[in-house]
Recover the amino acids of this structure.
């Protein structure tokens, strides 16, 4: 694949170059001398100042600024860039001859300061191209050095903004977590897909925050900005290597648009903001979810052998994702009908029991038996799932049938994707149900919906096992894991789809691509605020499985984002 | 079937009226002075004495059951680590009409420990956050079916409702 600065494939599919330390050092040399660029003019107004920082841990750093954007740091002269945001200044530079850089947020009124030490290589990030950061809070020496300190914060948690930079790039930024963020690039990336990455949130004043995201698992770039959430302005730094391995080292200004606020779930009065500390952490160490590293990666032959060995489990054991699920329904037992999907296939069903059925695809000679589970989420509206034994891709059908209107939707899961054989692919099939007493919907079908777009729902699967979904784009489902005390923290995401079954009844899915490989589905009843769903997964340990998903929900809120996403047609 | 439904079915040898009646009896203090020899009593007091002796035996058996559960000698529910009788509630005993079977209900605090050792994404992410182990308490009801034979009272079934 040719290198692309901003790939036209999902970022989790893009083979980012494993840059070496020497490559990086060489790439930083000239920018270290010159300083960061900017589409608009940088302020670079620190000439004559000596800024001496003392961190809360006693560490001392000093910058001596001269004319012509020159700064002396640690005996080395570099080019710096700075931008003011009211009485706050963000300045940044690379330390010449090293792979280290600094970005500093300085409150000129209080002298409180936050220093981001940034470095490539030597960990803790697993790849040299992924920027590391250590954050120091303290003060700059000088008159009025304040008692006030910048501090980590959860005050930004739950908000979302559209930021438009002076570069022209627009990004929908979601902050549903106090340790991660989720962003959707509307211009540089073409597929309007959301991504998640570890993020620092630091409160500088009542109105101004520093947000620093490292695009871990992808390019490894830093996207750092001071954001005045009241005036909806930002001043920031982008630093790191893009998909074409070109160094981006520029500062930007931006304007924002408030897109909403979802609920936070910390106990009222809890403003603690470092929910995932690591005991005896290494410098720069964070709890970063690296799903590709931990994912089983199987070949087609391995998957086939696994299935042939009988390591197949269909609703045969309790699922931790359904500890609080509703009871499955046996109400389909005794029924017979066919589901005719537009463009195929035609699936004929005989429900021989509450958890056994017979299926026949496209008029095959004989029916095959399968185990299934079903849940009736509104009267006459069922979700059920079963494997299609014998299909070359070990398919699973997860189907919502509405027997009151004759329509059906199938999240058709399959293995043997081009990426990992055990990773679930999925297509959405719409069809009609043909059977005695079932109305013929004619050409009417369930339809994709944007009713879910921008919404967030919490899911309490089992005691101690909870998450929140954020439906951040029409094609993205993100999930965020809370801590025991209600801070939402680690976040990840995958492809999603959303279909309206009835008013307040929605069929959604997520794919854990390059991340465990699961296809997760949920039929969400917003009247009962409960879902029932089915997971389809293949892995070395658990085998090929279908398992229940089910949890009571809280509606955390809805962001106003629909206008940013184009309408697409097709599967 | 929910556990509540199961409990309801399990107690079908006792109709609601007899449950309420005998439940009321069983809720009375057990330490009632009785004649030392049941043989001296008339039929009515003999029956009452027998019932009191049964209640005492069942209460003792019930305490032993809870002890065994807490010592891990009797597995009741996956992840259950301890049961503690709720001090706000008393043991309720409902006898079958023939007096040879009893359904006991005891409100309790149940402690659970769950280790998220699975390979699901959500479990992996919980482990990443240091939340691979969850302990919690739930108010539950220990429902026991006891039967009486020549050797005395014995456990027929137990479940947590």
């Amino acid at each position: 694949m040719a290198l692309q600065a901003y790939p036209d494939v999902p970022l989790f599919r893009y083979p980012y170059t494993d840059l070496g330390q020497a490559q990086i050092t060489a790439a930083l040399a000239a920018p270290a001398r010159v300083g960061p660029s900017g589409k608009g003019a940088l302020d670079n107004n620190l000439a004559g100042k000596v800024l001496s920082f003392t961190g809360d841990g006693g560490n001392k750093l000093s910058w001596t600024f001269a004319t012509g954007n020159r700064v002396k740091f640690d005996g080395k002269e570099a080019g710096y860039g700075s931008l003011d945001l009211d009485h706050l200044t963000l300045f940044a530079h690379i330390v010449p001859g090293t792979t280290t850089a600094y970005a500093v947020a300085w409150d000129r009124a209080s002298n409180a300061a936050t220093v981001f030490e940034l470095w490539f290589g030597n960990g803790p990030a697993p790849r040299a191209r992924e920027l590391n950061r250590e954050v120091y809070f303290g003060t700059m020496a000088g008159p009025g050095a304040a008692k006030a300190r910048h501090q980590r914060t959860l005050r930004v948690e739950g908000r979302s903004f559209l930021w438009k930079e002076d570069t022209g790039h627009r990004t929908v930024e979601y902050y549903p977590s106090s340790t991660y963020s989720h962003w959707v690039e509307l211009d540089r990336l073409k597929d309007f897909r959301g991504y998640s990455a570890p993020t620092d949130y630091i409160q500088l004043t009542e109105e101004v925050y520093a947000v620093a995201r490292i695009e871990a698992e992808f390019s490894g770039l830093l996207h750092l900005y001071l954001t005045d959430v009241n005036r909806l302005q930002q001043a920031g730094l982008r630093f790191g290597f893009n998909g074409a391995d070109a160094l981006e080292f520029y500062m930007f200004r931006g304007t924002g648009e408030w897109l909403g606020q979802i609920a936070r779930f910390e106990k009222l009065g809890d403003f603690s903001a470092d929910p995932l500390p690591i005991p005896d952490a290494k410098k720069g160490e964070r709890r970063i979810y690296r799903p590709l590293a931990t994912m089983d990666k199987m070949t087609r032959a391995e998957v086939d052998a696994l299935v042939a060995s009988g390591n197949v489990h269909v609703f045969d054991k309790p699922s931790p994702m359904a500890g609080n699920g509703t009871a499955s329904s046996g109400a389909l037992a005794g029924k017979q009908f066919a589901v005719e999907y537009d463009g195929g296939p035609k699936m004929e069903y005989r429900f021989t029991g509450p958890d056994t059925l017979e299926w026949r695809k496209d008029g095959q000679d004989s029916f095959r038996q399968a185990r299934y589970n079903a849940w009736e989420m509104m009267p006459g509206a069922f979700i059920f799932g079963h494997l299609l034994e014998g299909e070359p891709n070990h398919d699973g059908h997860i189907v919502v049938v509405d027997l009151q209107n004759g329509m059906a939707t199938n999240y058709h899961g399959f293995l043997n994707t081009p990426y990992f054989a055990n990773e679930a692919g999925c297509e959405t099939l719409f069809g009609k149900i043909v059977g005695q007493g079932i109305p013929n919907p004619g050409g009417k079908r369930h339809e994709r919906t944007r009713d879910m777009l921008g919404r967030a729902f919490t899911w309490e699967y089992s005691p101690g096992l909870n998450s929140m979904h954020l439906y951040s784009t029409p094609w993205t489902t993100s999930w965020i894991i809370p801590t025991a005390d209600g801070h939402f923290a680690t976040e990840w995401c995958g492809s999603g789809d959303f279909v309206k079954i009835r008013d307040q009844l929605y069929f959604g899915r997520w794919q854990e691509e390059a991340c465990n490989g699961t296809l997760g589905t949920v039929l969400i009843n917003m009247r009962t605020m409960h879902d029932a769903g089915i997971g389809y997964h293949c892995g070395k340990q658990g085998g090929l499985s279908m398992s229940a998903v089910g949890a009571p929900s809280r509606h955390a809120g809805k962001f106003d984002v629909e206008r940013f996403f184009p309408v697409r047609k097709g599967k | 079937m929910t556990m509540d439904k199961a409990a309801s079915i399990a107690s079908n040898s006792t109709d609601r009226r007899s449950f309420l009646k005998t439940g009321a009896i069983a809720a009375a203090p057990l330490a009632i002075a009785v004649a030392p020899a049941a043989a001296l009593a008339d039929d009515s007091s003999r029956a009452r004495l027998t019932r009191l002796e049964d209640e005492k035996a069942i209460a003792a058996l019930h305490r032993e059951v809870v002890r065994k559960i807490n010592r891990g000698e009797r597995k009741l529910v996956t992840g259950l680590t301890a049961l503690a009788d709720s001090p706000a509630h008393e043991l309720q005993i409902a006898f079958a009409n023939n007096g040879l079977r009893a359904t006991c209900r005891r409100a309790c605090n149940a402690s659970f420990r769950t280790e998220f050792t699975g390979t699901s994404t959500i479990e992996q992410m919980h482990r990443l956050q240091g939340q691979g182990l969850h302990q919690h308490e739930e108010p539950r009801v220990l429902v026991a079916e006891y039967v009486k034979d020549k050797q005395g009272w014995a456990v027929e079934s137990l479940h947590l409702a």
